[in-house]
Design brief:
The complex is a heterodimer. By secondary structure, chain A is α+β, with helices and mostly antiparallel strands. In chain A, 33% of the residues lie in helices and 38% in strands. In chain A, helix 2 packs antiparallel against helix 3. Chain B is built from 2 helices and 5 strands, in the order E-H-E-H-E-E-E.
Chain lengths: 169, 81
Amino acid sequence: MGLLHSNHAIVRTIERFFITAAPLDTGALVSAVATERCGAVATFVGLVRDHNAGRRVEWLDYEAYPELAVKTLARIGAEAALQWPEVELAIHHRTGRVDIGEASVAIAAASPHRAEAFAACRYAIERVKQIAPVWKHEHFDGGEVWIEGATADPEDDAARQAAYERACS
Amino acid sequence: MLITVRLFARLRELAGASELRRELPEGSSAQAAWDSLVRDHAELAEYGKVISCAVNAEYARLTAPLKSGDEVAFLPPVSGG
């Protein structure tokens, strides 16, 4: 994150694809993707929920492989750009302890028109769940458990197609 | 050749380390690195069919040949979002 000084304004620039232990700022993501040619920004914010699989969740601890996670989020951005060339995308994922009600992931997709913004935003969260090297360690009332979902394979075309179909449904 | 293995989440806990060094024959694959790890940490074996692998922080196939100094990471099924 840095500040660019010009004669007339101070513009805050942020990384589009980012892993951080700090609270997420969806407004900053929106600012990062919205340009004058955009008529729409769709956002998705994933929150830590107080229950899962019949357990009372107390908090989640997120672990990531940071170097690969940043590249994977950028890869998702590149995939979306192939599908929706006019969309600008940003994805931030949190690590460490995230309490109930806090954001674990934030996505913003800006586009001239809303349909593409919604679709790219949905596609991005589906792909995050499929391939981002991030893990939830759930702390619940009575214990803790690692949550394990999909075997990550960015080259799996069937998974990519499933994400695309959900995005366009 | 000497390589570095990185482990995450439950794999890290089962092996009791996030980073390990392994000495392997020249040209060994990522799969061979995994097999060598399982010999010392049998509790990892159940993950053999579901892991992903990355070499030098890029997703790779388990058949990928390794070079001396490479960092190979084994990833349990992911659960971000």
